[in-house]
Amino acid sequence: MLRLLVDSVRDYAIIMLDTEGRVLSWNNAAEQLKGWKAGEIIGQSIAKFYPAEEVARGKVENELRVAAKEGRFEDEGWRVRKDGSRFWANVVLTALRHPDGSLRGYGKVTRDISQRKANEEKIKQQAQEIFEMAVVPVVQVWEGILLVPLIGVLDSMRTQQLMERLLHRVTETSSPVALLDITGVPTIDTQTAQHLIETISAVRLLGAEVILTGVRPAIAQSLVHLGVDLSSVASRASLAAGLRTALGLLNQTIAAAKDQAHA
Amino acid sequence: MSPVPPAGELPIKAEHDIVTARRTVREASTQAGFAATDVTRIVTAASELARNIFKYAGEGVMRWRHVRTDNRSGIELQFEDCGPGIADVDLAMEDGYSTGGGLGQGLPGARRLVDEMEVQSKVGVGTTVTVRKWRRN
Amino acid sequence: MSTAISVIKVRDILLVTMPPDPDDSTIAALQERVLAAMERHGSAALILDIAEVDTLDSFFARTVAETAQMVTLMGGRTIIVGMQPAVAITATQMGLTLGEIETALNVDRALDVAAMPAPQKHRKVRR
User: Over the stretch B15-27, which tens digit does the pLDDT of each residue have?
Assistant: First the structure.
């Protein structure tokens, strides 16, 4: 009956190993999962199931040793099929003993959890995206006008996030104007100014324009003292003024389009 | 295009090989798990370096492989040729340097797109440029 | 393959579309075909659509900048359209310059831009 169970189980590869880690028995699920037929694999070492770089690091010996010492060893990691392809596996290695306590061999149960790992990666990625959105929010405040309320320090990493988010939103929404509000940016140093300039340049390459808003007197002073050249960038002290300018820019293009249409 | 393995070698001896290099690196970088913008950075750097081989040495080879340490993984590209070599590598790495369309053009630009760059060159012997880009595991 | 570049005359505008991942010959052909078309039609503006281009390196950038300069000398403007975000970020990080060009989000807007007077900086160059 037990043999029938082992042979019928589809989700778990159940195999027996000798004390050296060589395969003694093989079930149908093992064949399905790993690709080898029983005849091909019995007598071979389980090192065949591991990526070469891990075998070289002694992973197989380590697992067997821990299982022998603790009674069991559980792990998640890459395993290799007969055709060389990899899958993410959950593995439980159990030490089997003679009645007198000496080691008889091992039982190994392997489960393919690639799908679960893929799902975990996806959730991680989505969490990262949500985090990035919270860190750099890009809001559409009007048709064709995006607003980025920057809060906090603008270091290299945040600048990367900012550029990615903003540029993608510009493309997605076809917004010709982006308001970059720096009311919440406490200090401006040369680095931050350079980051802002980089961001503005990239947005312009897409075909959109940036208006810097929330430029407080202290910030304006810093920028001038730093000798930063923002002469080609429209900037306004308040967000409201920036919005007005943005609407003006949009109206210009609409007027021109109307002229075109009537021409 | 046949599937790109995690490591390999590509001869650069015809103009079209620059395109093949870009496509190969795009696939290899995507496989290495880089996000879209980083893939574009790596491909653009590869385009510069592959073109350098073709234009100034006439012929050479591009090698790629996935690399991994304990806490990060990434990609390594190597561009090797038996061309004229670069007399002054430091000078070639400076922005705006060019001996009238000369060697190393594109080096400073490519340098900005990757995390590590090593240039070994000997005049009359050849040049090897190795670049690496990493991502967190 | 220069035939991969599409050149269409629309009223007094040249609409040029680049294929994805053009090889060096195709990039060089861009310049030749634009100049030939400018000579033939005397267009007021060149709209260069690079929406399908996913790599913009220094060679491509230099060719575009030179072409734009030539177009200016022939009395026209150059408007680049559809640059992909990853390309824009990479180009900015590399410090690539495209020279005297204007940009627009898409061809529609490029036509609007072409209808408006050229930006101040641009006019100064022409004088």
Answer: 999 999 999 999 9
- CB–CB contact C115 A259 (8 Å): yes
Q: b/e for A26-57, b at 16 or more Cβ within 10 A?
A: bbebbbebbebeeeebeeebbbbbbeeebbee
Pick the residue of C55, C62, C89 with the most B CBs within 10 A to test the interface with B by mutation.
C55
Fold classification of A123-262 is Transcription Regulator spoIIAA (3.30.750)
d(CA C103, CA A171): 13
- What's the Cα-to-Cα distance from B42 to each of A26, A201, B34, B36, C61, rounded to whole Å? 45, 21, 9, 10, 17
pTM summary value = 0.74
> CB pairs below 8 Å between B and C: how many?
59
Contact A230, A192 (CB under 8 A): no
Average pLDDT on A257-263 reads: 63
What CATH number matches the domain at B7-136, 3.40.1390.20, 3.30.565.10, 3.40.309.10, 3.40.190.10?
3.30.565.10
